[in-house]
Each structure stands twice: as structure tokens, then as C-alpha cells.
Amino acid sequence: MVTSPSPDSPTPASRRLRAARALWRVLGGRAARFAAGAHQTWRRSLQLRVVTITLVASSLLVGGFAYLIADKLTNILLENAETDVLLRLQNGSDYASKQFNLYSQPQEAQLQDTIDGTVNYLAGGDPAQTSGVVVAITADNFTTIEPRTSPDVQVRPLIGRELRASVAAGKVAHQIRTGTLDGERTKYLVYGSPVPTKFGQLELYYLVPLTRQDATAADARATVVATGVALVLLLGLLAALVTRLVVTPVRVAARTAQRLSAGLLDQRMVVNGEDDLALLAASFNQMATNLQRQILRLEEMSRLQRRFTSDVSHELRTPLTTVRMAADLIFAERDEFDPAVARSAELLQAELDRFEELLTDLLEISRFDAGFAMLDSEPTDLVPVVHRVTERLAGLAERVGVAIELDLPDSPVIAEVDPRRVERVLRNLVGNAVEHGEAKPVRITLGVDQSAVAITVRDHGVGLKPGEEKLVFNRFWRADPSRARQTGGTGLGLSISLEDARLHGGWLEAWGAPGQGAQFRLTLPARAGDRLTTSPLRLVPADATLPFGGPRSGGPLAIGPGSGEGALAIGPAEPGARAEVAP
């Protein structure tokens, strides 16, 4: 029983086609990887580029020069051969003309013998000579005269039609032809000349082999090529050595600079000699020494500043407590004073509250600067945290006429965070939004995904001017110093909030546009210690517009968890977009 193949089964042709495609994919992938590696090496290696350019340029130059030399030498050899053959042809033509002028009719019996003797004489006197020169006399106009050659070979294939026509017209002409006369294919210089006689014109041809000239030219070309290759290699080697002398100190300087940037401030370059490269190394070392001195001085100043801030903050606690006790007593009895004194007591109480808050913020900043800030993470439902912040700021929002809108999930949003620090961040963000809300609603949105939680605070106030995204988290920075404040903040709230976000391994980003308000986004990992890659909420509000009125869909410049105050980052515009943070 014979079974036919299934229509769906692969045929041998289809299998070969798939195998060929797979082979091409493999070869294409390897070629792409090789090209990418070569391109990367070309971009990174200055020495490779210099040597390659030197080799290419010198190869072109030497190749052109070698071609000119070989061509000139070949022309000289050919001209010498032509001059020699032309002289022999003229002498032979004169001799043959004298011999043939003895006859007045081409039918004379002795004419053929005279032609044979003349050919042998012009060829060197021996019909069996082996010099390679072939002499031929033909009589195309006379059928009774047989052509003769010495040595006796068939030369007609080497005498071209054009050459025969030129000689028959009474001209001396020549050409170069390649053919086989003695069993070996050879290139010949063929010269022809008319031989005038009493009974008409005969044709004399000299066929001179160019074997010796070709061999001489080939030897010359080989010598020129070998010399050129040696010269190119020598130039490449010289370029590599010279480039190495220059590139090596530069590479050492680059490695030393990398170590210096990594904090190894005692790294220096070795100074050898007194040339320009030694001057570069000495200048680099001097620069590194000065930088080390300045960095150490700045570090000491920073340490003293942090210590001063911490000491002053602690030392002010005691007099502040005493003043607070006296102010509380005066404030409690303010109703018994006249209105001016009572108002002074209220102002004193308000400023003492602000002073105490400033001391608290300074102590917190000093702990961040000293690296002593600790994170007390625990599973926390962020929905109640948002509600607590809203309730605490409800009085301020009512006074300035700002409505706080909440967009919170119905289910709990659990994340491993420090609730005290998160609440402080939200209090600062919502407080600033209410301050700058221009009596327009402030919206708080809470979002969550599998790896992160995010909270955005959106206001519709004056917004941020271009470039203020870089400054908004700086300490004591205010967008409009002349603008009246309702809460009298310390100017450290957003700086502390940024440090709190970094301590969680999260992001605190800002967006703003003049006349469109601002939006701050706090993104925290759902599990402590995880690394953030996306945010559940977009940084740019959906109602934000471009200057020409179109919807804004791209991500703006934002402040993220980079190093230093107000580090600049690119915030993702859409949920799920990857956020790249500047180091």
C-alpha cells in the first residue's frame, strides 16, 4: 500500500528553503554584530583611526606613484623596441628594394630565390635562427609571388587587416598583436613597410617578440609594488608608534580623571621627560592637587556648616522653650490688654510657631545632610493618610477659598512606607498647592499598580515659569518673593519632601506651565527596597495644553530623585512609560 504525503507536510524544497533562510539569518546576525563591534572600535580608538587613515592615504599615494612609474617604464621599453625595429625596417626595406630592382617582371624565375635569400639575410642569415625576430615579405598584389618568412612560420594571423591596408597604401605602420608562432603564445610588435620595385610594390614585415620587455616591465612593477607595500607598512608602523606616544598619556589621563571623579583624590600621572606630554602630565597633576585641596576645603566647610546648623538648632531649643512659655502666658492673657498689645501677642505667637517649625526643619535637614535619617517602613494604607492631610489643611483651604478634590480608589492602597514621612510630603505638596491655587480647586489623585504607588497634587494657579522646575526643590527658594503667604512656611518643605522621597527609593517630580498651574507627583515603590521603573500616574496633566493650543502628550522636564538639590530628570508622560533619572 502506497501512501501519499499529507498536503500539510513539508516538502524537501520547503525544508531546504527554511534551512537557507535560517542560515541567512545566522550569517546576517553575525555580520551585524561584527559591523557593530567594528564601528564601536572605530569610534573609541583614536590610534586605529589614525593608523587606518594613514594606511589608506599612503596606499593611494604610493599606488598612484607606482602606477605612473610602471607605466612610464613600460612606455620607455616599448619606445626603445619600436625605435630599434623601425631602424631595422628602414635598412631592410632599402636593401630589399635594391635586390628586387634587378627584376622588371614578377614572373622572372630568379625572383623567388632572391626573395628567399633576402628574407634569410634580413632575419640574420640563418633560416633556423632562434632570436625570436620573424621577417616576412609578402606580395598581395602578385599571385605569382609566394610570401616568404624567416623562420618559416605562419605569420598571416598576426598581421592585421588594418596593418596590411596601411602598408599596401604605401605607409609604414605598426601594431602590437598576441599570437602563437612557435608553440608558445607571445606578444609581438609588428612593423610593416612597403618595398618599391620596378614591377610594383612588395611588403616587408618585422615581427619582434616583446617577451624581454614584458619581463623587464613585470620585474620593475614587482619591485615598485614591493617597495610601495614596504613603504606603506613602514608608514603605518610609524603612525602607530607616533600615535601611541600621544594616545597613551591621554588614556592614562582619562583613567586618572575617572579615578579622581570616583573619589580617589590622591591619583596622579607619572611625569617623564620635559616635552609637551610631560608638561600635560605636570599640569594635570597640578590641577588634581588644586582640585583636591578645594574639595577638601569645601568638604570641611560643608561639615562645619552642617555641624553649625545642627548645633544652633539644638542650642536654640532651650531659649525657644523659655520664650514659648512666656509667650503662651502672654497670649493666654491677651484679652486683658489693650488692642495693640493683644495684636502684638498674637503676632508673637504666630512667629514663634513658625520659628519652631523652622528649627524642626533645620534639624531634619541636618540629619539628611549627615546621613543619619532612618526609614521606618511598615505596610500602610495610603487612603487614610491622604484623608488626614486633607482634614489638617481644610481650614487653610477654606480661608483662601480653595476646594480640595479627592480622586481615591475605593479599595485600600497598601505600600511599605514610612507613614510619618509620606504624610509630611503630602502636607507640603497640598499646602503649596492651596497657597498657589488662586481660589481654584486642588485635585489629589492616588494611583497604584503592581510595583508602585503614586500621588499627584494638581493646582490651577499661576504655574511655573520655564526653568523653575529646576529650582522648585531648592532650599529657601520661592517662585515670587513679593507674593504674600498665608501660612508663612520655612522654605524647606519641598527640600525635605525630596529627601523623604529619595529615602524611600522613590521619585518626587514637578511639572508646571504659566497660566496652567502645576502638578507634583510622588511615586514610591510598593515594596520597600524595590527599584522603580514606571509610575502609575502621568506627570503631565491630561488638561495641559501646548503653547499653540494642542494637547500635551510628551513628558516635560521634571525634578526627580537624582543626586544633589533639585536634580533634573525626565518624567514619563504616560502611565507605564519608563522614567530615566539623571544621576
From TrEMBL:
Which EC number applies? 2.7.13.3
Which Gene Ontology cellular component annotation is one that this UniProt entry carries? plasma membrane
Major localization class = membrane
Q: Where is the Histidine kinase domain?
A: 311-528
Q: Where are the transmembrane segments?
A: 50-70, 222-242
Q: Which UniProt keywords apply?
A: ATP-binding, Cell membrane, Kinase, Membrane, Nucleotide-binding, Phosphoprotein, Transferase, Transmembrane, Transmembrane helix, Two-component regulatory system
Compartments, record wording: Cell membrane
Q: Which residues form the HAMP domain?
A: 244-296
- One MF term from GO for this chain? phosphorelay sensor kinase activity
User: Which residue ranges does the record annotate as region Disordered?
Assistant: 544-583
Q: How does it sit in the membrane?
A: Multi-pass membrane protein
Concerning InterPro entries, the annotation shows: HAMP_dom, HATPase_C_sf, HATPase_dom, His_kinase_dom, HisK_dim/P_dom, HisK_dim/P_sf, MtrAB_MtrB, Sig_transdc_His_kin-like_C
Q: Which domain of life is it from?
A: Bacteria
Show the catalytic activity: ATP + protein L-histidine = ADP + protein N-phospho-L-histidine
Coiled-coil annotated residue ranges, if any: none
PROSITE patterns for this protein:
HAMP, HIS_KIN
Protein name according to UniProt: Sensor histidine kinase MtrB
